[in-house]
């Protein structure tokens, strides 16, 4: 397939802007503006080194470059799009299904993420595929997409499966889903501070809007945890088989 760089850069802009804007805003607020106010509440007293930030941004940028190829291949390629389950008009399946698709996607993603994550922790794969992500022992918001390129390919695999197996709109898969995941992943790295400390500082600073955003992130994280266990339950029958494969 000939790469159409104009469309590729369009997808990169949509995917990458969410990472740089969200991670950058959270980093600026908690690691620069409010740094001294909540330092004593930080779970790890030390801050990452500048080299750690650069490493996380570097690998996250590579991840974004890899993520951009998936919609380019499935959406911008007429030969492939005809074989996908994507639809353009919400009215085709109704608004109820449109909103129901979000929790379904979270369940699918968490189930997929759990098993692929466990597989990458296998001793034969960890150093090659997953060690890069674990180098962020004191992670910052920039670590949201800091994966080894091979892990990035595995991570974006759920999107490929969704294009072919799950009926939903491009808006959910390409924009909303990436956007929500970026918020959740970035919010996870803000966890280096205790929630009590974040709430206290935000109230004292009068940042009520930001407090709402943080609470929303925490709600989304709770939803992710709930769907995670639901996904584990749905895959329980296959667990013995997977364990045997991992031991080989």
Secondary structure class reads: mainly alpha
- Overall geometry: globular
Q: N- to C-terminal separation?
A: 37 Å
Q: pLDDT under 50 segments (min length 5)?
A: 204-209
The pLDDT mean sits at 74
How many H/I helical runs?
A: 13
Helix content: over 70%
Q: How would you spell out the order of helices and strands? A: HHHHHHHHHHHHH
Largest sheet features: none
Provide the gyration radius in Å: 19 Å
Strand content range: under 5%
Number of domains: 1
How are the secondary structure elements laid out?
Blueprint: H1 5-33, H2 35-38, H3 50-67, H4 69-74, H5 78-81, H6 94-120, H7 126-134, H8 149-155, H9 157-165, H10 170-189, H11 195-205, H12 208-234, H13 239-247
Kindly describe this structure.
Helices cover 73% and strands 0% of the residues. By secondary structure, it is mostly helical. The chain has one domain (5-85, 95-247). α1 runs antiparallel to α3 (50-67), α1 (5-33) runs parallel beside α10 (170-189) and α10 packs across α12 (208-234). The longest helix has 29 residues, at 5-33. The chain is globular, with a radius of gyration of 19 Å. The model is unreliable at 204-209 (pLDDT under 50).
Summarize the structure.
This protein is mainly α. The chain has helices at residues 5-33, 35-38, 50-67, 69-74, 78-81, 94-120, 126-134, 149-155, 157-165, 170-189, 195-205, 208-234, 239-247.
Name the features.
248 residues; mainly alpha; globular
């Amino acid at each position: 397939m000939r790469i159409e760089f104009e469309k590729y850069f369009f997808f990169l802009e949509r995917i990458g802007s969410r990472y740089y804007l969200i991670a950058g805003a959270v980093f600026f607020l908690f690691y620069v503006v409010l740094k001294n106010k909540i330092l004593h509440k930080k779970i790890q007293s030390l801050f990452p080194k500048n080299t750690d930030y650069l490493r996380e941004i570097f690998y996250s940028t590579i991840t974004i470059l890899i993520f951009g190829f998936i919609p380019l291949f499935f959406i911008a390629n007429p030969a492939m799009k005809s074989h996908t389950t994507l639809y353009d008009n919400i009215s085709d399946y109704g608004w109820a299904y449109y909103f129901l698709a979000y929790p379904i996607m979270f369940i699918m993603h968490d189930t997929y993420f759990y098993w692929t994550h466990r597989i990458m922790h296998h001793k034969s794969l960890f150093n090659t595929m997953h060690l890069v992500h674990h180098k962020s022992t004191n992670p910052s918001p920039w670590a949201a997409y800091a994966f080894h390129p091979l892990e990035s390919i595995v991570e974006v695999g759920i999107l490929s499966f969704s294009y072919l197996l799950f009926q939903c709109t491009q808006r959910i898969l390409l924009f909303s889903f990436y956007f929500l995941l970026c918020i959740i992943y970035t919010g996870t790295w803000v966890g280096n501070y205790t929630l009590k400390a974040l709430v206290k500082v935000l109230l004292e600073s009068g940042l009520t809007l930001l407090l709402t955003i943080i609470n929303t992130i925490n709600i989304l994280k709770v939803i992710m945890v709930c769907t995670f266990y639901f996904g584990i339950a749905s895959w329980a029958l296959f667990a013995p088989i997977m364990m045997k494969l991992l031991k080989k």
